[in-house]
Write a structure and sequence with these properties.
alpha/beta; Rossmann fold; DNA polymerase, domain 1; six-stranded parallel sheet; 9 helices; globular
Length: 242
């Protein structure tokens, strides 16, 4: 029996949201800015994707194990672990360069236009990131010049659980005083959209390079899929036009 088309696969919430909740890392800010560091340390910029994949894996592992270490601490430890795997001696200066790089990644060039369009259409905009707040300085969004577009910046640090734990999405809805069904998660990672949809959010997927929909019929599919934020914004506005 042939699989159903992507358009007919499960969407768990088709209601118009009042709040758009954005992932930050890779969705709004560009992790490819770390390429030169990985090129210098490992001699291969592709190791960035290996490290980032491990970072996602072990953040989920800590949550499933009932443990917690902040995202930056995990990132530094995994940087050294990947170095051991590749037989590369990671120096203290390299770890510091990674810390600084994680705090200063630039915005994707398409982001501001898409945010303006969504705000103009009347949506409330907030963020939800695995990254902890920086008590000693500006957030990555502030450094990237994007913070002014958002009503609130949420971190999983408050729940001490990483996405896609249902706890963190419910936390955002409760803090904003809305039902989960009033929220739409926008991310470039399917594991994030699935987690949000599992508690009642709708979802939009931005297919940044290296990301794509997951065609499994029993899993919730994004309401909208687009290659960049302005296109996603236009499709969300069209889908839920009053």
């Amino acid at each position: 029996m042939p699989l159903p088309s992507l358009q007919t696969r499960t969407r768990w919430n088709d209601r118009k949201p009042s709040v758009v909740v954005f992932d930050v890392n890779e969705t709004l800010i560009d992790i490819e800015a770390l390429n030169p560091l990985f090129e210098r340390v490992f001699g291969d910029r592709r190791v960035l994707r290996e490290w980032f994949g491990q970072l996602v894996l072990y953040s989920m592992t800590t949550t499933l194990s009932g443990l917690y270490e902040d995202f930056f601490s995990l990132g530094r430890g995994l940087f050294e672990m990947v170095g051991t795997v590749h037989g590369v001696a990671v120096e203290a200066a390299d770890v510091e360069a990674l810390r600084e790089g994680l705090l200063t990644m630039p915005a994707h060039p398409d982001v501001e236009e898409g945010l303006r369009e969504l705000k103009r259409a009347g949506f409330r905009l907030v963020t939800l990131t695995n990254s902890p707040p920086d008590p000693g300085g500006k957030t990555p969004l502030e450094r990237a010049g994007l913070a002014g577009h958002f009503e609130r910046q949420f971190s999983v640090e408050a729940a001490r659980a990483f996405k896609p734990s249902p706890l963190v999405y419910r936390m955002v809805a409760e803090e904003l005083g809305v039902a989960p069904t009033a929220c739409c998660m926008v991310a470039s990672h399917v594991w994030d959209t699935i987690g949000a949809q599992s508690v009642g959010f709708s979802a939009g997927l931005i297919t940044r390079p290296g990301n794509a929909p997951l065609p499994v019929s029993g899993l919730p599919q994004p309401n909208v899929v687009a290659p960049d934020l302005p296109t996603l914004a236009a499709r969300l506005i069209e889908l839920w036009r009053s």
